Amino acid sequence: MNFFRSQTMGYYKLIIPRESAWNVMNELAELDCIHFVDYDPTLPMINRPFANYIKRCDDLLVKIQLIEHEMKKYQKKITHCKDVNLLIKNFKQLIKERSKASHTYLDEIENDIEKKHQQLIEQSTNMENLHERRNKLIEHKSVLLKGEALLGQSFFQPANYVAEGYVNLQGKELDDIKVLQGSVKFNYLVGVINKEDQIRFKRIIFRITKGNAWMNTMDIESDQIVDTKNDDAKIIKSVFVVVYPGGGGSNIITNKLNKICESFQVAKYTFPENNMIFQEKLRQIETELVETRNLLEMTKNQVEAYLDDFQRIYQNSNCSQIEELKLFLVKEKYLYTQLNYLRVQGSVLYGSIWLPHGADIKVDQALREVQTSYEGLPTGQLQISPPEGTRPPPTFFETNQVTWGFQEIVNTYGMPRYKEINPGLFTVMTFPFLFGVMFADIGHGFCLLLLGLYLCVFNKDIKESDSILKHALIVRHMLLMMGVWAFYNGWIYNDFMSVPINLFGSCYYQDDEGDETIWARKEDCVYPFGIDPVWLCVPNELTFMNSYKMKLAVIIGVIHMMFGIILKGVNAIYFKNWVDFIFEFIPQIIFFTCTFGYMDFLILYKWSENWDNRTQDAPSIITLMINMILSPGNVDQPLWGTKEDSSEGQVQTAMLLIALICVPIILLPKPLILNCENKKKHAHEQSNLTDNMNKDLYQKINEESEGTQENSQLQAESSGGGHHEEFGDIFVHQVIETIEFVLGSISNTASYLRLWALSLAHGQLAEVFFQMCLNGGISTGGFVGAIRLLIGYAIFSLVTFGVLMMMDVMECFLHALRLHWVEFQNKFFKADGYAFEKCSYAKVMQDNAAPKEE
Q1: Residue-level pLDDT at 760
Q2: Which of 215, 148, 207, 208 is nearest to 187 (CA)?
Q3: Residue 798 has pLDDT above 70, yes or no
Q4: Coil, strand, or helix at residue 217?
Q5: DSSP string, 166-194
Q6: CA 351 to CA 341: how far, in whole Å?
């Protein structure tokens, strides 16, 4: 079972001649079954032999991104690749048909992209320059037209200078200022400023001149000026005119105003001295604008012609050329990245790989395919080898569309060890169930079930659409199973949006005794399925449901954790770790059974008893468990028998003694045994260190240059292992493990009470929404009740969707996640493995073929 335990891995040596390295790696990367072992993880990629090729691919990918940006700006649609395997076959066929060496195709691609990119950059630069020129002309034209409207014809006439001094222009209109022309000489400042800076500019002008200036603005039409640095977005600018008294260019106010304009990056213009020059300048600007617009149109057509070539889908391709080029570069970069994991010595590349059981046959076939397809090229060699170092093999599970999401839940916490039991197999079943216990509701669970069914049935249509549900397709089976269990547990609790459903008829009937009405149970009547609906209509409903759900949560939690402890024992048997099996698993399962397993037994036994007419004799389970610790053997209110002849006290005393004996068994024997084994192992390694080296083909190639280094590494590993496994370290670790297990048993059991708490919260929220939104309209009746019901139903639907179907689903999901990560998996799961990273063109290309979300 490849999903119960990880696939069996084989360690191999791969030797590739350098002249055929590209061809061999190209074949191997299509197999999706090889994990390359990095010969030196500490060596930076930039210092490796094929780093230059990777840098070239990165540079070309940057240029491709710039071209894609231009295509998006010009609204050119890019057809993304939907079948990368077909594209890989096209690349392979294209390279085979060439008469040149396979790896030189990158050179051709590089030259082609460089040439087209340079042409596009030149045209884009011309476009930006033309836009800048057009913006300047529009601004100048607007200054002339708006300035004339603001200043009027009188400012074309030269002013008679009489005196120069301070003139308060604050609050004066332009006509009042014209009257002063005969006594004071006025200067003006005309320019263009961004509209968003206009208010700040006015304030600073006022403060600097102390009100001794007149300023007015007029907006330029918003669709005329474009921002060339922001994808040709429209810019709103304004023409401003500042009139202030003074003579000459060295005036203090003039200098201050010029500095303000520089700080705001304002474009300043000069106003013509007379009307004749004004009209001549206007005609000149208009002529230049027409020429600039024509040049812009021509340049734009040339740019679109370049981009149309990148947009085109060529024969035997399923995507645009720009996408095809990008994926080829991604493929090449990935190929050279994998080659960098191999050591280069002379004309040979060699390294280590992990292969799943049976994959060596596929690799041998691929190596023979290289020799057949490319005549004259030597192929690689594959040789099985014992693993080097102390690192275990990688972990690899085969997943499908159903199991992928649940395995990701496990992997997010940690990767299972090699051949360790995979929690993902059980998570497929237990995760939706625990979610359903917390989200139990017939109506809400059915809505979630319908969503899962819809995503599963119409997944192809949704995948090809732009629906927001497309992002939920990857977990559609998980949503379906969560909906099934929420729907099922809703029937167990008999809860339909806080309303009970009476399907089989209640086992209780109302019996009037005097002035008091009581509920009596029919003789030998048992409600067939779920909770009798009468319990949801009586005053002590909350008390009953609290007790029921709390005890049910404890039972589920104890069973779940005991199953995790059993899996620990199964792991110990598989790895033949008899110390863990005898001195950890056995005492742990006995301890847990004698404490919390006994508590579950008490709950089930109490449920099985008929307490009619003697409810006062029913003991409290919590009281029994507390007295079991504080007062062993003393049972004031026994669950079975009478106080005088009940054996319950003896049973509790025996359970407590067995549990206490288990604690030192967990704590002491294992560190003592491991310490003895480590001493023997260390002495044996010291005496036989030089006799345990096997020289295979890989070691012969590496013997002269790397032999000394490997021997020193082996010695460091052997000596380092003894140092890190001193008795003190082992004992402290075991003390921590023991304390964590004993105290964790209590806290973990209490943690499962979240199953009760969230289920209770869900039911109470649904009841509050029903009472506040719908119950009033139903109770009122008539026309007013119908109006209240109509309004209340709209509010009820919104709050139910927002609070219960969105927030509560996420809350229950996170709590179910925590129960698996902390309470269940820590009983057996080490989570210190590492994933099998298969060398796969299809995976890396598929990851880059999907369009990026904006």
Answers
A1: 92
A2: 215
A3: yes
A4: strand
A5: ----TT--HHHHHHGGGTB-EEEEEEEEE
A6: 7
The residues, ordered by sequence, that sit 6+ positions from 299 with a Cβ below 8 Å of its Cβ are 123, 126, 127, 130
Largest CA distance in the chain: 128
CA 67 to chain centre: 28
Average model confidence (pLDDT) for the chain?
85
SS3 736: helix
CB-CB contact of 774 with 793 (8 Å): yes
Give me 274's structure tokens: 């007379």
Strands 233-234 and 35-37 turn out to be unpaired
3 state SS of 435? helix
Q: Residue 164 in contact with residue 184, Cβ under 8 Å?
A: yes
DSSP at 646: -
23, containing H or E segment: helix 21-28
Backbone angles phi, psi at 214, to 5 degrees: -115, 130
Residue among 437, 411, 431 at smallest CA distance from 422: 411
Q: Whole-model pTM?
A: 0.80
pLDDT above 80 (res 226): no
Distance between CA atoms of 67 and 75, rounded to whole angstroms?
12
Closest CA to 117 of 163, 154, 69, 162: 69
Helices (H) and strands (E) in the chain, counts: 29, 13
C-beta atoms surrounding 303 within 10 Å: 20
| DSSP, residue by residue, 111-167 | HHHHHHHHHHHHHHHHHHHHHHHHHHHHHHHHHHHHHHHHH-GGGGSPP---B-S--
Q: Distance between alpha carbon 488 and the CA centroid of its chain, in Å?
A: 31
Structure confidence at residue 26 (pLDDT): 93
| DSSP secondary structure letter of residue 832 | -
Residue 203 has pLDDT above 50, yes or no: yes
Asked if 536 contacts 494 with a C-beta cutoff of 8 angstroms, the reply is yes
DSSP 685-713: HHHSSTT-----HHHHHHHHHHHHHHHHH
Length of the chain, please?
854
Three-state DSSP state, 42: coil
DSSP letter at 549 equals H
Give the span between the Cα atoms of 439 and 436, in whole angstroms.
5
Give 793-814 as a 3 state SS string. Answer: HHHHHHHHHHHHHHHHHHHHHH
Q: Are 73 and 364 in contact (CB under 8 A)?
A: no
Start-to-end C-alpha separation, the chain: 42
Q: How far apart are CA 630 and CA 721, in angstroms?
A: 45
**How far apart are the C-alpha atoms of 614 and 722, rounded to whole Å?**
66
Nearest in space to 784 (alpha carbons), one of 792, 260, 298, 692 = 792
Distance CA 406, CA 486 (A): 17
> Which candidate, 184, 211, 203, 190, places its Cα nearest to that of 258?
190
pLDDT tens-digit series, residues 524-534: 788 888 898 88
Cα dihedral across residues 652, 653, 656, 662: positive or negative: negative
Q: Using an 8 Å Cβ cutoff, are 456 and 476 in contact?
A: yes
CA distances from 817 to 379, 420, 754, 824 (A): 49, 20, 12, 10
DSSP string covering 452-469: HHHHHHTHHHHHHS--GG
- Decide: helix, strand or coil at residue 655: helix
Residue type at 343 in one-letter notation: R
DSSP string over 293-344: HHHHHHHHHHHHHHHHHHHPPPTT-SS-HHHHHHHHHHHHHHHHHHHTTSEE
Q: Which residues contact 495 (CB under 8 A, 6 or more apart)?
A: 440, 441, 442, 536, 763, 766
Provide the pLDDT for residue 135.
Answer: 86
Q: Which amino acid type is present at position 456? A: C
Cα distance between residue 148 and residue 403, in whole Å? 75
